[in-house]
Structures are given as C-alpha cells and as structure tokens.
Design a protein that fits this description.
mainly alpha; 434 Repressor (Amino-terminal Domain); two-stranded antiparallel ribbon; 4 helices; 2 strands
C-alpha cells in the first residue's frame, strides 16, 4: 500500500511540485494534496492511487514495501538507469 510519506518523498527525489505530479499523473491537484496529507492515499480511488504510482515509477521512482527483504519499512529510491 502506497503511503502519503512515500508520495512526498518520491516527489522530493524527483524535484516535482504537487502541481507537477498532478499534471504527470492526470489526477487533480486537490486529490494529490489530500493523498499527501494525514488522510493519505487510502481515501482516494484505486485508479487515482495507481495513476500517481505509475507516473512516479515512469519517472524512475522505485517503491519499497514494508516487507521487502532489505527494507525496514516503506520507502522510495531512484532507479540508477532512470531517464533525465
């Protein structure tokens, strides 16, 4: 499950603003703001969460899940071979 902190961290790694993420994902800015708040992405539709995740992954973000072998908890990192 994608977390609000992962979305914020992914944006920071890419140097994207909330409006940039909204544009790249096709999700409205108010939805991005809500997904990054304490409410988190759990209150958004699965389609919106998927669109945000796909946009960030396309830009080179890798999402680490809490149960990944080398992860202590959920996180993000950039692919080494990412474009840009």
């Amino acid at each position: 499950m994608l977390t609000a902190a992962q979305i914020r961290a992914a944006r920071a790694l890419l140097g994207w603003s909330q409006p940039a993420l909204a544009k790249e994902s096709g999700v409205s800015l108010p939805t991005i703001v809500r997904m990054e708040s304490l409410l988190g992405p759990g209150r958004s539709s699965a389609a919106n969460v998927d669109a945000v995740r796909r946009a960030l992954e396309k830009a080179g973000v890798l999402f680490l899940e809490a149960d990944d072998a080398n992860a202590v908890g959920p996180g993000v990192r950039l692919r080494q071979d990412r474009e840009g």
